[in-house]
Amino acid sequence: MAITVPQDVMAACSVLINAGFQAYLVGGAIRDSLLRLQPTDWDIATDALPEDVERLFDRTVPTGRQFGTITVVGDGRSLEVTTMRSDGVYRDRRRPEEVEFTDRIELDLARRDFTINAIAYDPDRRQLIDPFGGKKDLRRKLLRTVGSPNERFAEDPLRMLRLVRFQSVLGFKGERKTELAVEARLITYVSPERILIELNKMLMGRFLQPALEFFYHSGLMEEIIPELASSAGISAGDNHPFDLLGHSIMAASFAEPDVGLRWAALLHDVGKQVTLKREHSAISAEMAKDILTRLRASRKLIGRVTTLIAEHMFDIHPQSSDRAIRRFMARVGTETAFDLIKLRQADLAGLNENPRHILAYRTAMEGRLNDILSQKGALTLSDLAVNGHVITAELGLKPGPKVGLILNYLLDRVWSDPSLNRPGQLLELARSYLKTLG
Ligand code: ATP
Ligand code: MG
Q1: Is the pLDDT at 235 greater than 90, yes or no?
Q2: What is the pTM of this model?
Q3: For residue 21, which of 48, 185, 307, 355 is within the disulfide window of CB 3.0 to 4.6 Å?
Q4: What is the CATH number of the domain that holds 66?
């Protein structure tokens, strides 16, 4: 099968070839092309040395120079150009002790993790180079390490997590020998940053449920997220058909493929191991914060996930009053309100609810939120037709806590009846409320 190589990628290969070097396309782009999936990024393997690559291209960034990787910056996208290498001894279980460059593509393919990732494409001869039976494994939907799985996992234990990631993204199975070779404890040698990258990619997979099951049964979950692994076999509550871990896995798998939402779905109930009461949401949020901080997640991701988890027990529903829904939206913010509905949808899926009801719930809730957004009513204090200055001036008050009380009272009234949001009306309401304050 011919691989369709984008023009800019082909042009970069031609630069190398015209200068007398070899150039092959390798890695995920070839795998995905053969699967008729849209490749994300294109990697080029060459026998040109990093300094050759820097000389041949105008705009380069030395992203991983010591391992032979130079990023070539193009107009539309950047390409990683890596000098072919046959890796030496791995001593710190992360990086080969010494990088040995080679001019043989077969040796470069031999250092790669799985057979399906060890196929090269020669764009000049339009030929695949597939020394380890990668194409056959693609057809069999099989994840098999290049060479002995025990050795390959010991060299770089991150590969065990990549095994789970490709299960989730591609829906492939691990070959039996490869799966049995997983030695979860080794993952502790890998930096949290590298672990998080794979976990995030895993969470985005379409086949997340079986992947998370394997993540648990292989012992990897216990090593990386023990707080979640320990929820296996524990009750998630009276109305729950699955145990707590099962519920979390179902919720994450059914959540929309959005990394924050999936983390939130996976961890929203971890605190139920402490209490099944309502407070579990605050405890779960704390635990999620610890987990994601340990994995060096960005502040932004941690913030989003913990907010969603902390608020996931919200009790508005499609029949709630406008006032209740406005109050909810004002408190959590519009964007979070929509996210919380998606999280509730995932939560219901984890309860094995009828999919039609789940969809109906989401449609109804989003309808209510959108209705409110399209109305002129005020959601937050800043939307009110009067502000603190107007209140103090018109009611002859000094700035102080009373002004805040009045404004919040007015907002509450406007939540119930948006037509009240006019200066005259609001001042009248404020005057009578002030009397009740004494
Ligand atoms: P994608 O880019 O779609 O996430 P990918 O397979 O391209 O998937 P990358 O992390 O971009 O993954 O790696 C590119 C290639 O480098 C892989 O296809 C594989 O051949 C090789 N590779 C990546 N990580 C490892 C590793 N830890 N051990 C061995 N080979 C690896
Ligand atoms: Mg890639």
Answers
A1: no
A2: 0.90
A3: 48
A4: 3.30.460.10
Residue 93 has a pLDDT of 63
CA distances from 346 to 125, 146, 199, 353 (A): 49, 37, 19, 10
Domain end marker among 200, 224, 248:
224
- Say yes or no: CB of residue 134 within 6 Å of ligand 1: no
- Ligand 1 contact, 113 CB (< 6 A): yes
> Could you tell me if the CB of 374 is within 6 A of ligand 1?
no
Quote the longest CA-to-CA distance of the chain. 90
Quick count: other Cβ atoms within 10 Å of Cβ 258? 15
Ligand 1 binding pocket includes 159 (Cβ within 6 Å): yes
Residue 287 backbone phi and psi in degrees, to 5: -65, -40
Nearest residue (by CA) to ligand 1, atom 17, is: 27
CA of 191 to the centre of ligand 1 (A): 17
CB 368 within 8 Å of CB 318:
yes
Output the pLDDT for position 427: 95
2 within domain boundaries: no
Ligand nearest, relative to CA of residue 45: 1
Candidate of 113, 153, 155 to mutate for ligand 1, largest count of ligand atoms within 8 Å of Cβ: 113
Residues 397, 319, single domain; the answer is: no
Strand partners, 44: 25, 81
- Considering the domain architecture, whether residues 233 and 360 belong to the same structural domain is answered as yes
Asked whether residue 227 carries a pLDDT value surpassing 80, the answer given is yes
Q: With 90 as the cut, is the pLDDT of residue 240 above it?
A: no
User: What is the position in ligand 1's atom list of the atom closest to the CA of 159?
Assistant: 27
Question: Does 41 sit in the ligand 1 pocket, CB within 6 Å?
Answer: yes
Residue 225, Cβ density class (10 Å: 0-12 exposed, 13-18 middle, ≥19 buried):
buried
- CA–centroid distance, 113 to ligand 1, in Å, is 7
User: What spacing in Å lies between the alpha carbon of 105 and ligand 1's midpoint?
Assistant: 16
| 17 plus 126 within the same structural domain | yes
Residue 65's domain comprises 7-137
Chain segment 157-206, per-residue pLDDT in tens: 999 999 999 999 999 999 999 999 999 999 999 999 999 999 999 999 99
Query: Tokens 């190589």 correspond to what residue?
Result: 5
Is 85 found in the same domain as 26?
A: yes
Residue 162 CA: which ligand 1 atom is closest?
27
The pLDDT tens digits for 48-103 are: 999 999 999 999 999 998 889 999 998 888 999 999 998 765 666 666 667 789 99
